[in-house]
Amino acid sequence: ATTVTAMFVSKLARLAPSTPSILTQIARSTSSIIDNDIADDSILLRNDDENGVATLTLNNPVKYNVMTWDMLQLLQNQLDTISKEDRIKVVVIRATGKAFSAGHDLREIQLQNGNDEKQRSLFQRCSNLMISLNRLPQPVIASVQGVATAAGCQLVASCDLAVSSEDAMFGASGINVGLFCSTPAVALSRSMHPKQALQMLLTGDLITSDEALSYGLVNKVVSSSMLSTETTKLATQIASKSSHVVRLGKKMFYEQLAYDNLDEAYAFATERIVCNLKHPDTMKGIDDFVSKKPKS
After folding, report:
1. How many CB atoms sit inside 10 A of residue 30's CB?
2. Confidence at residue 121, expressed as pLDDT on a 0 to 100 scale
3. Which residues are bridge partners to 248 per DSSP?
4. Which pLDDT belongs to residue 296?
5. Cα(91)–Cα(53) distance, integer angstroms
6. CA distance 79 to 56
7. How many other CB atoms sit within 10 Å of the CB of residue 254?
8. CA–CA distance from 37 to each of 59, 68, 73, 102, 110 (Å)?
9. Taken in order 17, 19, 25, 27, is the CA torsion positive or negative?
10. How does pLDDT run across 241-268, given as a tens digit for each residue?
């Protein structure tokens, strides 16, 4: 089966001459899947550090970390678990291999042709995962290397923050095989300027990490050798803050965006900040600041 990725190899060649061979391999890789109802948990790894940072690693590099039913299930299971773990303060999502994620496996989708319920279930599972990232109490940081296309790009856009290597590339490439990236459009249109998002969706072109930064898709671009270090630095910095306040802040941030009326948004924010002031961490922080005490 022809994959989305194969369709834009030639376009990528004009942007990054060293990358076509990588994308050709992605095309071959995403054209086949193992038909197995039991998720192989080795394709998703988890590591927790002493600072309360949980790192989830997409670990299916041979298939370029495609968003199969199994991968989606394993990610969802981990997020459900982490949401109940107070000791985890920040989540990082990274990947092994030459791609962050090549998106959905089109062979898996092709095998479901004629079965609307199975196809609907697959995309609903993916959508539920993206919603879970938004609603997870802890902030989620994407650490992106290589290529992130279609649902892979959607995953980046759905994370709260993103650090990218300078050689990473991003795309919503479904249009190249006649499939508009409708579900990725939801995340992209909410994390970057709508016109830039729509251009990606309508052309299927890949954008560079610097373009992703200017569009608002990622927060920072670093060298490949510094990606892990810079991601850890950001995660550790956030983890050092009051966990209660960080969780309150993330929830409040997304809730206030739902208000079209500015007066209502400020009224909502006012109530949240008054509530925040009552928390012991906040009271102690303010007391220490006023009395010039060093943080304990």
Report:
1. 29
2. 94
3. none
4. 58
5. 6
6. 9
7. 12
8. 18, 11, 11, 21, 17
9. negative
10. 999 999 999 999 999 999 999 999 999 9
